[in-house]
Amino acid sequence: MSDEQAARPTPEIVQGHADLIGDSRIKQVAALEAVEGGAWSFKLTALVPQPNDEGLPAEVVLRAVIPPDYPFAPVEVFAESPELRGFHHQDAETHKLCLREEGLAPCNQDRLSLYMSWALEWLYDAAAGQLLPSGHPYELPDFSRKLLKDKPPFQKKLWFCESPVSYPHWKDRQGQTGKVELIELANAPAVLAASFTFGKEVIWKFPVSPTFDAAGTKTEGRWLALPSLAFFRNRPPQRFGELRQMCATSGIDLNSLLQDLWASDSGSSVCSILLVGAGIPRIAGEPAYEMHWQPLAIRNVNCEAGLKAAHKGPVKRRKAWRKLKALDRFADDTEIPWVSCENIAPERLYSRGSLASGFRTQKMALVGCGAIGSCLADHLVRSGTQDLTLIDKEDFEPGNHARHVLTGHSFQVSKATALKQHLQSGSIHTRLRSFSVTIPNFRSAIGGDALAALRECDVILDCSAHESAFRWLSRYGADEKKAVIHMFISFDASLLVLVFSGRDVPARLALTSFERQSLSGSLTSLSQADQDLYWHDPEKERLVIPGAGCWHATFPARWNHIQCLVSTALDMIEQRLAKPQPSSGFVAIAKRHDISHTTHGSTPVVEWIYRSPHR
Fold first, then answer.
1. Sheet strands (E) in 307-375
2. Helices first, then strands: H and E counts in the chain
3. Cα(278)–Cα(463) distance, rounded to whole angstroms?
4. Rounded distance, CA 365 to CA 388, Å?
5. What is the DSSP string of 558-615?
6. Which of 36, 152, 170, 323 supports an S-S bond with 337, CB 3.0-4.6 Å?
7. What is the pLDDT of residues 355-385, one digit of tens each?
8. How far apart are CA 230 and CA 338, in angstroms?
9. Beta strand 459-462 pairing with 364-367
10. Residue 28 φ/ψ region, left for φ over 0, alpha for ψ in the -120 to 50 degree band, beta for the rest
């Protein structure tokens, strides 16, 4: 392509631009202009209904940017008129409009006109005050600082934990300020808002799991509570003058807070954190139901080169504040360095996929952290399980890597220990414990601890595939009135068997009942072919010998096949445990079908071929 051709818009762009001229909602469409990076841009003057609820003028200007990959990339539309800024569904700095999903627009010459139609719909909704009508999910103001010249002195994300459970502690604290203990986590790229105080009163503590490693550098920040996080429409304060005005309205002296932060003893940290908070609703138009904290970071006295006051008491620090005229650094027109943050309350973390609450809160022990156990534990923790104990004596070996959630970083480490570390790193709310012991050998000190952990549990999940462990756990569960679930797969991961204990029937008795009926020929609800598959004893040449020497052979089963079976089993486990334990035991068998490109009909990948109570 020649330079002359590259400087011309494509026919799709030319046609899409021309199609806008006849739109009655548009007064004028400016010519296309080439912009940096091979993109094209133009402005248009749009007509706004008069009068309107937001007091917008009769004419406003929008700017469209057409990417070089058009029509296979989204068109960006920006508000050029100052009156069009600060609305919902709009970037607070660049003023770009947040329009509909890109996938709704065709990849042809009609793409541009559709995007501009969406932009005009946005404009009309903005004028009518209907960008975020009552009943729609609440939208936070946009605190991103993409255009900030000086990057914030703090680049880590701040984590806080707020929900409807904690909001009553904050409901009546508008206009108040206090201190917050912050922990710069050693094992995560984040800072934890660990504890909020007002004077000597502890208002709220982060409910972190006692097994999560919350070690790190502790610093002291400040917090202030406002009625709202928005300064103008839905735009947050972007300059200190705007925040100062919001604070003054609520009776808060921002200058005093900034001085405290700048002069605070923050150890070796060169920046201090101020959390600006307000109650927010879940749905627009509803009352506030949780607190949101937006952090800002400022450089403090510790970053002052050669300033001896940085290592002395608060009096010298305050003298340094006055001597350096540090308040001038927070002048009204100075940009606020907002910091990225995230609410990691369980309600937020697991909203994308959570187990039923009655199942999620039960204390569980998982015995056997191999292929099945590690997969099940991974699903449980990622779905919000609050308390899980892991038990397995074996170490994680290179040969285990083919079908396990762990990686090579865990070689030669106890499976239970490594799995606990792996899951805990991303699960700040889950209580995870691990014990490298063999069931039922509890004679060692750690064995005694494991037995004590079992006593605390409500549910025992046996994924060990060891007959002796299953027998002992079945008897133990019956004696201690605990639900026991035995789980194993057959050769080549073709079947997965779940055996549930009942209130009056141990898991082992339920399995014995099933197998006795199968061998006697009285199990008519399961086909003979599937019963043969259950009892199938593979030929020795089809078993897997992990290495040379006297090894216990195992059978082949691909990781993705194990995963699809375990994923299906989790639904069955959740449904059974969400209800009171019935008196009878229960056996369920899931079958995996090999589906190929020649398979006809609607054969499922996994189906439940047997579900029946057993006594």
1. 341-343, 364-367
2. 15, 21
3. 47
4. 6
5. -HHHHHHHHHHHHHHHHHHHTSPPPSSEEEEEEEE----TT--S---SEEEEEEEEE-
6. 152
7. 888 888 999 999 999 999 999 999 999 999 9
8. 14
9. parallel
10. beta
